[in-house]
Amino acid sequence: MTRTITIDPITRIEGHARVEIDIDDADHITRSVFKVIDFRGFETFLCGMQVEMMPTVTSRICGT
Amino acid sequence: MGDKARVSIEWLSGCSGCELGIVDLHEKLLEVLDEIELVRMPILMDTKDYVKADVGLITGSLRTEHDIHAARAMRDACDAIIAFGTCPVYGGPHSSAYPHTTQELLDGAYVHNPTTRTSEAPDDVPKLLEGNRPLDSEIEVDLYIPGCPPHAAFIFEGLMALLRGREPTFGHRNVCFNCERSMKKTDVSTIRRAYDGTFDPEVCFLSQGCLCFGSVTLDRCMAPCMKVGVPCFSCGGPSQPIILEPQKDVRTEVAARMAHLTSIPEETIIAEIECQAKTHFAYAMASPVFRQKPTFLLKKWAGSGSEKGAQQ
């Protein structure tokens, strides 16, 4: 029987994510997916900001 | 172990810089750990449940449905909640998505992205809310410590005050208090951008015609930026007088001060700030603090012309 192992949330990383692993009858992994579940929209909202602010604001994409 | 206060940490939509802010306590961290027991901290521990705790520290803002669930679960599990960092207090840098719709944000990342081959947003992840929201729009908050991240001195004082049941002795000074530059009258007649030529490192940016928001920003940082030649972008959120006084807004306050120090007309400075609203209001744009002020037009200023972004 196909099983799915879900690790949600993944800890000890920066950010929010989960992993889903499908395993078939022969214990082979048939699918493994890493899902990032947070989204803030930097791609869009940075447009129109002053260029001199970029070093300070883009460092807040990931603070670690 | 039994006498230690149990502290639980959860992150919502943010960058984890505030978790790093805790590490900035350095050897003071040992003093803190004598009094607290960390029972949950996703960046460090594998506790997935919302375990019972005396104090809950929440970083990040409310951006997804998962964030709402996590905030409520923390409120139920913790006796006191600290909104820790500018994101839970005011919304944080992603507040500047305020002039955009959620669909525009998703399209910008997944449909029109020039470097990633995708065509549609994933649908099996928590839904985005219609806007970015501060923590107290959903749950009750007991202590606010803005800062991006808050300086370790404020983190230490905030935690210790809460553990001892007393008021924190933070003070309500603005960023200028710790800035070593001196304000002086000049005959500068045009606004200069931070990259326009060189600036005297000992003189206030405003005196030199460069917009700096230190005078209207709450000091939770100890003014590190001005020491390295970067004007204040207000990442700690508005100062106490701005928050408390309905008619005071950061735009007119900065313009009045700068016009006094230079020979640039006040109206010119106000117009410049409105035109650059997305930059100067970025960190607290999602906060209702600005809604009840003359800055209620923020969405219009930030969304006007080229300010809104090249893709739209």
Describe the 3D structure.
The complex is a heterodimer of chains A (64) and B (312). Chain A contains two helices and three strands; from the N terminus they run E-E-E-H-H. By secondary structure, chain A is α+β, with helices and mostly antiparallel strands. Chain A has one domain (3-58). Chain A has a three-stranded antiparallel beta sheet, with no helix packed on it. Chain B has two domains: 5-164, Rossmann fold (3-Layer(aba) Sandwich); 175-275, no CATH class. Chain B has a five-stranded parallel beta sheet, with helices on both faces. The model of chain B is unreliable at 305-312 (pLDDT under 50). Classes of the chains: A alpha+beta (64), B alpha/beta (312). At the A-B interface, helix 1 and helix 2 of A face helix 1 and helix 5 of B.
The beta-strand count of chain A equals 3
The CATH architecture assignment of the largest domain in chain B turns out to be 3-Layer(aba) Sandwich
**What is the strand content of chain B?**
5-15%
Mean pLDDT of chain B: 93
What's the total count of β strands of chain B? 7
How does the helix and strand content of chain A classify structurally? alpha+beta
| Discrete helix count of chain A | 2
Q: Which short descriptors sum up this protein?
A:
heterodimer; A: 64 residues; alpha+beta; 3-stranded antiparallel β-sheet; 14% helix; B: 312 residues; alpha/beta; Rossmann fold; 2 domains; 5-stranded parallel β-sheet; two-stranded antiparallel ribbon; 11 helices; 7 strands; 29% helix; disordered C terminus
Task: Give a quick rundown of the structure.
Chain A contains two helices and three strands. Chain A has helices at 42-45, 54-58; strands at residues 3-7, 17-23, 29-36. Helices cover 29% and strands 12% of the residues of chain B.
